[in-house]
Design goal:
By secondary structure, this protein is α/β, with parallel strands linked by helices. Helix content is about 60%, strand content about 5%. The chain contains 23 helices and 9 strands. The strands form 3 sheets. Strands 7-6-8-9 form a 4-stranded parallel β-sheet, covered by helices on one side. Strands 3-4-5 form a 3-stranded antiparallel β-sheet. α19 crosses α20.
Length: about 625
């Protein structure tokens, strides 16, 4: 029996370095990276790196040996080798100026087909939907890029078309659920076939070229190459699920890739937005506004879990209301407002939208239309306004979608300070700090309480100031009246008359007290017992129990030390890690609470200062008016 050698089994045999993988596949580093991205093979982190690297202590990029053996049987490997052969032969023909042979070779340029890889990586349609987040984010990003050295214009056009098709499906199916504005861009979340898909639409800015060291566009374009094929399959299935024709037919006035749109970036973006404001053809006569059938509650009652059934019914009712949130409303977007996210939101919930036709293409009605209900503006004032519509800021749309109801527009008028824009993607039952505005969303009664608390505190402070002024005036008046009264006594009656009246009053009081004592003595014993019982039954004021914070903290520290001693030695590192995470969360929560207290204090002080200045200005104006009236 042969004795096994060192590093022939175990982790050393399970992992292979990148250099050994390149030798085994006979590929260059760029081709190997491209193959791994397309096939979904990534480096692995071994449990014991030194064993996996056969005793070497340096850091190497390791792969599973079975993944590399899996790549040996891939047909793309031969296509990548054909690329290398094509480059050599075409270079030779170009060097010897054999253009006839070079033209023949260019016609036979090898092409990579990724259809089988998409089917291999995603056996079912639900698997593809689960992995759609990164795909959509990257395609939306590339759809805004101009033509670059490593990103051809055809790839950007393909990304633009695929993303527009997906957004048309979101609009037709009304599957949008959450939206949020952040520094990165606009977050959208849709529910497709029971799967939650989240993606980011970047803010539109003029493109700024980046150096190669900061962003590797070549690697990103390889991901896009795979995601475009995957997105094409996904759009095909989604459109046919809604009985819509695929590929969709857009109007001839939009999505026309000409030399003018290639040069003008604004027209390129304008065409993309205009394509979202058109209805697509359907293969059946079903109305777009047809709602999904309600849940059969009688069938669900057989499960027996009534709470779960009620929760499902409530969720279904909320979703049905959300799908028609903006139904019957007409919006007009001003030119300074970013149109793409607003068009997606308005059309996804049944509303109609338009903009200035003289600036952007794709408008369906003008600003002078009297049936417009809301005009979205992002400037402090407007010269001309219609009384039949509400002029609101863009945040109103996002907050209405997140709260699943039409909110009052008075907080979103022109020039108003907007309420906080809260993220709908956080857990409402988390243990960390929750701002009061978010608590108010969960409990509507807290909205008034929180709003009134500041108003009441300000009103109390103002009332206290006014009461102090009134009290000073009253004291001065009483002092003046007292001085006048004493002067009159001294002038007419003198102090002796006053003392006689006081003596008479004191004699009368002594007589009353003696009579009361006699009446008490006449009470019998039963009455005394009743009085004693009543005194015992009376409510007495309680005493405040002072908590010694030092003793409470000491008890918590002792309890923590006892818990640490009870932990087993092998679990001590894990216990310390949990304690550190807990301390970090508590510190973050404390810092956020402190920050909120400082902000509230500054706002309160600013409001007080503004009120004082307003009062001073009013008092000065009143003084000037009184002087003028006196003259």
């Amino acid at each position: 029996m042969r004795r096994p050698k060192k590093y022939e089994s175990g982790e050393a045999a399970q992992y292979i370095s990148r250099r050994a993988a390149l030798r085994k596949l006979q590929l260059s580093l760029n081709d190997f990276r491209r193959l791994c991205i397309l096939k979904g093979v990534y480096p692995r982190e071994p449990k014991h790196r030194r064993r996996a690297q056969k005793g070497s202590s340096e850091i190497k990029i390791l792969y599973h040996a079975k993944d590399i053996r899996f790549l040996l049987h891939e047909s793309i490997v031969w296509t990548l080798r054909d690329y290398k052969i094509f480059a050599k032969k075409s270079g030779r023909d170009r060097a010897i100026k054999d253009f006839r042979n070079l033209k023949r070779r260019l016609a036979l340029f090898p092409e990579i087909k990724l259809d089988h890889i998409v089917k291999e990586r995603y056996p079912t349609f639900i698997d593809a939907l689960k992995d759609l987040d990164d795909c959509l984010t990257l395609l939306f990003l590339f759809s805004t890029f101009p033509s670059l050295h490593l990103i051809p214009r055809e790839q950007s056009n393909l990304c633009r078309r695929l993303t527009i098709e997906f957004l048309h499906y979101i609009i037709a199916s009304k599957s949008l659920r959450k939206v949020f504005i952040s520094i990165k861009g606009y977050y959208f979340q849709a529910e497709i076939k029971g799967q939650k898909v989240t993606w980011i639409v970047p803010h539109y800015y003029p493109f700024k070229p980046q150096s190669r060291q900061e962003v590797d566009f070549k690697v990103m374009s390889i991901f896009v190459e795979f995601y475009t094929i995957m997105m094409g399959f996904t759009n095909f299935r989604l459109f046919h699920g809604l009985n819509m024709a695929y590929p969709p037919q857009f109007p001839s006035s939009v999505l026309q890739d000409t030399e003018e749109t290639y040069k003008d970036e604004s027209s390129f973006v304008s065409d993309r937005i205009a394509a979202l404001n058109f209805e697509l053809l359907r293969t059946d006569k079903v109305q777009e506004d047809e709602e999904e059938p309600d849940i059969d509650m009688e069938l669900l009652e057989q499960d027996g879990d009534s709470k779960r059934i009620v929760k499902m019914k409530q969720e279904a009712q909320e979703v049905s209301r959300l799908r028609t949130l903006f139904k019957g409303l007409k919006f007009f977007i001003n030119r300074e407002v970013p149109r793409e996210p607003l068009v997606i939101i308005i059309r996804s919930f049944g509303g109609k939208v338009s903009w200035d036709s003289s600036v952007f293409a794709g408008a369906t009605y003008d600003e002078s239309d009297e049936t417009i209900t809301h005009q979205i503006v992002d400037r402090p004032s407007l010269s001309t306004q219609y009384i039949s519509r509400d002029y609101i800021q863009p945040q109103w749309l996002f907050d209405c979608v997140n709260q699943r109801q039409l909110l009052p527009t008075n907080k979103y008028f022109l020039g108003e300070t907007l309420p906080p824009h809260l993220s709908p993607f956080v857990d409402s039952k988390r243990d960390t700090y929750i701002p009061p505005e978010e608590k108010a969303l969960l409990d509507p009664s807290l909205i008034e309480t929180h709003a009134q608390s500041d108003d009441e505190s300000e009103d109390d402070a103002a009332e206290q100031e006014e009461d102090a002024v009134d009290q000073e005036l009253l004291d001065a008046q009483l002092q003046l009246a007292y001085q006048q009264e004493t002067a009159e006594y001294k002038k007419y009656g003198g102090p002796d008359d006053v003392n006689e009246d006081e003596d008479a009053l004191s004699d009368e009081e002594d007589d009353d007290e003696s009579e009361d004592e006699k009446e008490e003595e006449e009470l019998d014993e039963k009455t005394r017992r009743l009085l004693e019982e009543k005194e015992k039954m009376s409510v007495q004021s309680g005493k405040v129990h002072k908590v010694n914070k030092r003793q409470v903290h000491k008890a918590e520290v002792d309890e923590h030390r006892l818990q640490a001693r009870m932990v087993k030695p092998r679990h001590r590192n894990l216990f310390r890690k949990l304690i550190r995470e807990k301390q970090t969360k508590e510190k973050e929560e404390w810092l956020l609470r402190k920050k909120r207290r400082n902000i509230d204090a500054n706002d309160k002080e600013a409001k007080k200062t503004a009120k004082r200045e307003a009062r001073k200005a009013a008092a000065a104006a009143a003084a000037v008016a009184s002087k003028l009236s006196g003259k």
